From TrEMBL:
ATP binds at G96, Q97, T98, G99, S100, G101, K102, T103. It comes from Cloeon dipterum. This is Kinesin-like protein. Residues 3-340 form the Kinesin motor domain. GO terms for cellular component: microtubule. Belongs to the TRAFAC class myosin-kinesin ATPase superfamily. Kinesin family. One of its GO terms (biological process) is microtubule-based movement. The keyword Nucleotide-binding applies. It comes from the Eukaryota. CDD domains: KISc_KIF1A_KIF1B (cd01365). One of its GO terms (molecular function) is microtubule binding. Gene3D superfamilies: 2.60.200.20, Kinesin motor domain. Residues 552-619 form a coiled coil. Keywords: ATP-binding, Coiled coil, Microtubule, Motor protein, Nucleotide-binding.
Length: 622
């Protein structure tokens, strides 16, 4: 078990408080925080003292005890990072009235980042240090709770009613359809964070020019795996919730009206529920009801408050006497939160736990064997050893595949370029240029095998399988940074010129295969060298032949295009004729069937007439 850690941080006066001539009512000494009542009545002590895990004096930058963003991170953020690497869930949230400095502490400006960016950067830095021993995977999600509705800050659109919150019986509350983004470096995290912050709801009030009108939860899902002592697998999954709450506020103080007033009501409702949850957990009464579901915020933070998490609360306060009531309320909430006891556990993968338990049973069985061999114990030992070996092999294979995918995704990245998106790769590759399929909207990229052969053809065993080619059409050999195309059993061209022998290909070369496939060869290292040398390659220079050869190549392509158009027209006309012939044959069959039925009917009528005649003749004879 572990108690919620609580830190208090006081900010400097803001411009509004300076204009009002505000006086400071906060004093700090070590872990102690004192709030002074300047308008005390007779018999009143005039101050209240609170003791927390940390009290950060960030009021006056020139003060020797001034707490910087770096200090706050070193004492709080590093604990979050350590918890994640130990396999625990972690949560860090900032609480306080609007304009008290919560967002500054959690996010901070670009030149003085707060806890969230520093924690993310530290996690990736630690991963780099321990890369040789373990494998890692990190996924990011970013949501806001606005007017009691959940919005995905990293999605292009959200449903009008917001995303739904559900609860898994073992894993706890989660947001259905929330996007999760794989990240491989801190820069990627920073881009997602910036994107989410731009989408977040803020507005100006009398208390704060950029008041957060929503609660924001930035979550890192951190998976790590490796081999521990004696080759025993270890795999854990940690969730790190970094929460920036909207500020509590009074409508008369903020000057809120209309939509701002409605937002404030929802904000206060969720914060009142948070206070009720904190109070219920702090009282520790057996069987007492904790109202997690009374607000979306507390429902999503259920594990962080009284559950499976190591949690830190940062209470952000104003130093000004004009905010005395709100500051005192924040300090009281923080003081209650100290009494919340969580139950953090290491989130070990179930299969890894089973392997570890099997290993422990194997040790016990080996001890039972002793000097004399007992057949029953020996059989059980062999069975468990086989199962442990099988599970370990499956686990190792799963992580090998996962890491291969991660390396591929790391090598192949997307980056923004204005309104466009650039597909990057640091390995030599071929990009498909499909001339026939005009309905295709994707980009197909084929990586070449490093220092070896890449077989291209229609056969299933080929490295690059393309329909319409010979089974083993050609080979691209990559060695020491040089790529060579070698035709095998099919037509090949390089930059418009047919080739039947091995031909070197370079950055930007266009490779024609058969009648339908054109591929562009890209070598990032060669392209970088060309850029460094200041060489610009025009489209004409991509072709090895002369200008006349290029013109001839264009004419050949135009003729080929016309031939394909005529072939398509012929196939379409042939299809139409086949369809018309099928309809005529069907109509002929129908006519023949009708004729047959008519003849049968006439034959039946003829028989009836003949029978009637015979009956009449018999009557006449009688």
């Amino acid at each position: 078990m572990a108690s919620v850690k609580v830190a208090v941080r006081v900010r400097p006066f803001n411009q509004r408080e300076l204009d009002m001539g505000a006086k400071a009512v906060i004093r700090m000494d070590g872990k102690k925080t004192r709030i002074v009542n300047l308008s005390k009545t007779a018999g009143d002590v005039g101050f209240k003292d609170f003791t927390f895990d940390h009290s950060y004096w960030s009021f006056e930058p020139s003060d020797p005890d001034f707490a910087t963003q770096e200090q706050v991170f070193e004492e709080l953020g590093t604990e979050v990072v350590a918890s994640a690497f130990e396999g625990y869930n972690a949560c860090l949230f900032a609480y306080g009235q609007t304009g008290s400095g919560k967002t500054f502490t959690m996010t901070g400006p670009p030149d003085d980042p707060g806890l969230i960016p520093r924690i993310c950067e530290a996690m990736f830095g630690k991963m780099q240090e321990e890369q040789e021993d373990k494998n890692y995977r990190v996924d990011v999600s970013y949501l806001e709770i606005y007017n009691e509705k959940v919005r995905d800050l990293l999605a292009s659109s959200n449903p009008s009613g917001g995303l739904r919150v559900r609860e898994h019986p073992r894993q706890g509350p989660y947001v259905s359809d929330l996007s999760h983004h794989l990240v491989t470096c801190y820069d990627h995290v920073a881009q997602l964070m910036e994107r989410g912050n731009r989408a977040r709801c803020t507005a100006a009030t009398n208390m704060n020019d950029t008041s957060s009108r929503s609660h924001a939860i930035f979550t890192l899902t951190f998976r790590q795996a490796g081999l521990g002592a004696e080759g025993l697998p270890c795999e854990t999954t940690s969730k790190v919730h970094l929460v920036d709450l909207a500020g509590s506020e009074r409508a008369d103080a903020t000057g809120a009206t209309g939509q701002r007033l409605k937002e404030g009501a929802h904000i206060n409702k969720s914060l009142v529920t948070l206070g009720s949850v904190i109070s219920a957990l702090a009282e520790k009464r057996v069987g007492s009801f904790v109202p997690y579901r009374d607000a979306v915020l507390t429902w999503l933070l259920k594990d962080s408050l009284g559950g499976n998490s190591k949690t830190i609360m940062v209470a952000a306060i104003s130093p000004a006497d004009c905010n005395y009531s709100e500051t005192l309320s924040t300090l009281r909430y923080a003081n209650r939160a100290k009494n919340i006891v969580n139950q953090p556990t290491v989130n070990e993968d179930p299969n890894v736990r089973l392997i570890r338990e099997l290993r422990e049973e194997i040790y016990k069985l080996r001890g039972l064997l002793g000097e004399e061999t007992q057949p029953k114990v020996l059989a059980e030992l062999q069975q468990k050893e086989a199962k442990e070996k099988s599970l370990t092999a499956e686990w190792a294979e799963k992580w090998r595949e996962t890491q291969a995918i991660l390396r591929e995704q790391q090598a192949l990245g997307l980056r923004k370029a204005g309104r466009g998106v650039v597909l990057d790769s640091d390995r030599p590759h071929l990009v498909a240029i499909d001339q026939d399929d005009r309905l295709s909207t994707g980009v197909t990229l084929y990586h070449l095998n490093r220092n070896g052969d890449t077989v291209i053809g229609a056969a299933e065993g080929s490295d690059i399988v393309l329909p319409g080619l010979e089974p083993h059409h050609c080979i691209v050999t990559l060695k020491d940074g040089i790529a060579v195309l070698t035709p095998k059993n099919g037509y090949c061209s390089v930059d418009g010129l047919a080739t039947e022998t091995s031909s070197r290909i370079s950055q930007g070369s266009l490779i024609g295969l058969g009648r339908a496939h054109v591929l562009r060869y890209n070598d990032p290292a060669e392209a970088a060298q060309l850029r460094k040398e200041g060489r610009v390659m025009s489209r004409s220079s991509l072709f090895g032949g002369s200008t006349s050869d290029l013109n001839l190549n264009v004419e050949e392509r135009e003729l080929e295009t016309e031939r394909r158009r005529l072939a398509r027209e012929y196939e379409e006309r042939k299809r139409q004729l086949d369809e018309e012939r099928r309809r005529l044959e069907e109509r002929q069959r129908e006519a023949e069937e009708q004729l047959r039925l008519r003849e049968e009917k006439l034959e039946e009528q003829r028989r009836r007439i003949e029978n009637k005649k015979e009956e009449e003749l018999e009557k006449v004879c009688i």
